[in-house]
Amino acid sequence: MRKLRIFEHMSLDGVIQNSADENDFPYSNWSGPYRTPAGRDLLLAMYGQGFDLLLGRRTYDGFSGFWPKQPGSPMSDAINAAKKYVATHRPESLAWGPFEGVGSDFAEGIRRIKAIDGPDLILIGSSTLISTLLEHGLADEVVLLVYPVMLGTGKRIFADGAPPRAFELASTKALPSGIVINSYKGAGPLKQ
Description:
Layout: E1 4-10, H1 37-47, E2 51-56, H2 57-64, H3 74-81, E3 84-87, E4 99-101, H4 106-115, E5 120-124, H5 127-135, E6 141-146, E7 167-174, E8 180-186
Parallel strand pairs: 1-5, 1-6, 2-3, 2-5, 3-4
Antiparallel strand pairs: 6-8, 7-8
């Protein structure tokens, strides 16, 4: 069974939104000044030699308008080559591939996809899927790339009503730019 790993870029106060396209968000590309080629290479290494993507429809649409237009590089080549599993009610409208719709029962579709032999599944962005993945015990790892900024507003990684869970720190690494990468494995129900 392959693993499903969540990767999220976030501010100290949990904001993952990085685009002005939604809700009049005032801080477009706030993470850009902290990103470096060395950080990009480390992130790509963390994704693994080969990987497939799990994406919500909005993230898929945003990525499909960006990544195919990027010049060839290890990151753009890997993302463009990855199979994209997309949570959508309109799989017939997908064009950037290779792709496959997850299906109408999201949790069952992810279980099916995880049971298929293949590379790890990487979820990037797609914040509305995270709570469901955690609620159903489908995420094997949560990797948080925490940037040294507070934004005060914007979409947060965990929405109100996210299921309570415990995690164990698997690894941590600080980058010279100030980004701290923390990897967590699920540790079951919240301990009180």
